[in-house]
Amino acid sequence: MSDMIFADRRDAGRKLAEAVNSLLARHPGIDDPVLLALPRGGVPVAWEVARAIGAPLDLVMVRKIGVPWQPELAAAAVVDGETAQLVINDEVVASANMTADEIEAAKAQQLEEIRRRRQLYLRGRAPVPVEGRDAIVIDDGVATGATTRAVLKAVRLRRPRSLTLAVPVAPPDTAAKLRREVDHLVCLQTPRVFYAIGQFYADFTQVSDAEVVAILRQSTGEA
């Protein structure tokens, strides 16, 4: 079977919504969902799911801490919440000889960026309560899974009743690892040949801050 190519993130979201609806039908106990999107790319995907299942939409903010001379290589990730969560990739930290002080300094810098983005996107809106509810984390895809694992750990600490990860695409090995981190995994495809998430989108244009703000306003009936 050939790999599925999504027209854009909205198209992926509509297809993902069908799969999430199927999950809800199979598990009637998941009856109080709240969607947590990773900005920016996960927001248009999650909005289509939110509209389809009638669930509130919020953000889960995460920032990667890269190796100083190779920023795209994640040494750790920090996630906001009542208590900021730091998830360290021990293997990368060791190979890069990064010190605890370097990681702490980078953590402080990324938390400041998270605060800036939360204010920009949500304009002071209070977070949607997660405790005791069915949290569904959504992104436009997963590659290595390092950032996603950090997010899932942080969301678990908010004590949801259940935790689901829903994504359009992920490599098979990453999907298998993430499945152990959640109660339910919804992944539309796990292609063996995987170079980058954008490989599975006809249009993978970067989502702008303005688009994120517009979607969130629409989700609360402000637009």
TrEMBL record:
Specify one Pfam family.
Answer: Pribosyltran
Domain (Phosphoribosyltransferase) spans 28-203
Q: InterPro entries attached here?
A: PRTase-like, PRTase_dom
- Tell me the keywords, alphabetical order: Transferase
The entry lists its GO molecular-function terms as:
transferase activity
Q: What is the superkingdom listed in this entry's lineage?
A: Bacteria
Name by which UniProt lists this protein: Putative phosphoribosyl transferase
Q: Does Transferase show up as a keyword for this record?
A: yes
